[in-house]
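Forum: Protein Structure Q&A
Topic: Joint prediction for protein chains with partners

I've read a bunch of threads here and the consensus seems to be that you should model interacting components together rather than docking separate models afterwards. I'd like to see that in practice. Below is the full input, 816 residues plus whatever partners are listed. Could one of the regulars post the assembled result?
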Amino acid sequence: MDKLQKYVKLIINVGVNIQKGQKLLIRCPVDCAYFARMAMEEAYAAGADDVLIQWGDEKSSRINYLMAPDSNFGKELEWEKARIQYLVDQGYNMLGVLAADPEILKGVDPERITKDQKVMATTMKPLMEKVSSSAIQWTLASVPNPAWARKVFPNAKSDEEAIGLMWDAIYAASRVDGKDPVENWKTHIATMQKKVDALMAHNFKHLRFKNAAGTDLEITLPEGHLWVACGEEAATGYNFIANIPTEEVFTAPLRTGTNGIVYSTKPLVFMGDIIDEFWIKFKDGKVTEFGAKQNEHLLDKVINTHPNADYLGEVALVPHSSPISQSGILWYNTLYDENASCHLALGKAYPYTVKGAVGKSDDELNAMGVNQSLAHTDFMMGSADMSIVGVTYDGKEIAVFTGGEWAI
Amino acid sequence: MDKLQKYVKLIINVGVNIQKGQKLLIRCPVDCAYFARMAMEEAYAAGADDVLIQWGDEKSSRINYLMAPDSNFGKELEWEKARIQYLVDQGYNMLGVLAADPEILKGVDPERITKDQKVMATTMKPLMEKVSSSAIQWTLASVPNPAWARKVFPNAKSDEEAIGLMWDAIYAASRVDGKDPVENWKTHIATMQKKVDALMAHNFKHLRFKNAAGTDLEITLPEGHLWVACGEEAATGYNFIANIPTEEVFTAPLRTGTNGIVYSTKPLVFMGDIIDEFWIKFKDGKVTEFGAKQNEHLLDKVINTHPNADYLGEVALVPHSSPISQSGILWYNTLYDENASCHLALGKAYPYTVKGAVGKSDDELNAMGVNQSLAHTDFMMGSADMSIVGVTYDGKEIAVFTGGEWAI
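Posted by a regular:
Agreed with the consensus. Here's the joint model:
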């Protein structure tokens, strides 16, 4: 069996973990239709009852953004809402295939994108609630396309060579190698679960981050915070892994509990552009000052477009030795880059990372210190010399990371 | 400007003839997404107000047919009906991009296909009514894919070579050459309109077909029959050309007025298989006997699956010198092959080919001699030696075709 076939099996049988009699929605760009078809076959082979493919195409979206009249944006469609409700009512699980050109939105009027995102958020809400509450099994899988592959491997001599290199990198990052990837993942999940157990046992009040890049940050964690790693159980009773690869152990910061300064260690791709070498200062959770050597005005958009995007919603720990970090590749793709580095997210916190938070309103969540926002933007701040110290409620200091690696 | 770009312009500006402020739905297979994107750009350049793409994929449909459980077929979806109604209410015009593998349904359970076709017919009905009554502008355009191209050019050494040959054939058949294709089409439309005018002036009662292949057939035409060629005016007030290329001049036979025998002169592709060298006998319009050297059992399905598929619904005249006939290519695609040869269709007649028929119920149409059926299957019977004699109401015999060419 070739690696592509193994990767598809991993996505279907471990990622979304589809079971006999279940339904599956595959969201896939038209340019990697072959991948959707392979996933469909694999899902039926696993006993799926129904597999639907919903096609997308960012290239024609770009044409729309550039050429359609203004009246074309911000329209809510009733039949589209009915479609989403149907998928929810029928209990479709979901595989999202990602094959984005990191620069596809370059030069597009941000107003139009914002209008579309708002419509999308409203329309997709019932399905996204099932996703974010783990009511269904779901996963995201990346597939290379020429634009992404050549951005990551600018020295490749052809699209084909770049895509070949990209696939090799994806297989390595996803632990698809000579051995059975399903077994590889069982071991990996068990290892990460041990870190979760240790962090939960210490029940830290603060985490203190320091490195030579200049980061000097204290993050207070809310009471009842829950550390989460790969492998969640859905309300269906089956486990799934939302992202393959995944190397992160994460939780929510206390909304008002971050103080100090953090320096980015990798570029942030935002609306087709790159924000690089930036820093952010926090006081009582809120961003008070920031700067960037590249595209500071876009960092301003990240922080100031949506309410509460100037508070943190996620803190994630990733060892510097993770295979993705070791690849030395800048992926221009958050799902990969975030697994190469400790990171923070500006904006929304996931309610399932705080005890008793699931099901509460946005106002209630903000009041209890679980930040809610339309935005959720990850940025990387890990490094080979990152030190993280955990402070317990009785004041004990415990090394969590030393020299960029787990110390716990 | 390259020929592909010229072809796209022809499809948008002559085929569907999109106007400033109009909306366009493009139905397109995922494997030729580039074509949909070019058409979208061209439509916006022509002033379109909104261009929607609806993707299809016969390869994943095939996987569904082969692997999904029975419960998956014959489901009517309310949201899908709401989507179609929305397109109708908003007045979307339509471009259908065709890129079919002629053998994609080979080996699929015909029960499943029939179930799906019934659901499709019900779901699409409001839109198809707009199409068949020319309430909107619409056109169909073919794009080569490897399966089709290699079937047509089995000696090509690669997919690329076959697709290149196929494009050349499509450009030639569509009159996309060194000159302005839009001008070429104006001339062509005027020529065909002259044939329509001559046929209308004679108002024939019968047409008698004879050739050396063995065809000896008399077709009675209904009172008030209308001859139709390319270039219709939609209810929008704008002309459109439903098929590019088009070489046929056609009308409806009287349901009960066909007698004699007809021999096929080209293979008929049906459900992925080929029916070849067949003949059909008619008595008072109804098929009484038939035979085929290849796949006679499939010819039986053509004639006996749907009620009234054993009566004729179309008679079409195409000169043997048409560019498509001269290409010498067997296209395995009705939209092309039907323009290479005089042909008949078993099943549904188009109400707009008989005066006073539009808007009548199926029962009323059948009673007035305009055959109605779920099926409409074209088959080719023209030849280089085809003779067609028209008989007027006062018994005069006039040569319509001699030696396969227009004589009128």
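The mean pLDDT of chain B is 93.
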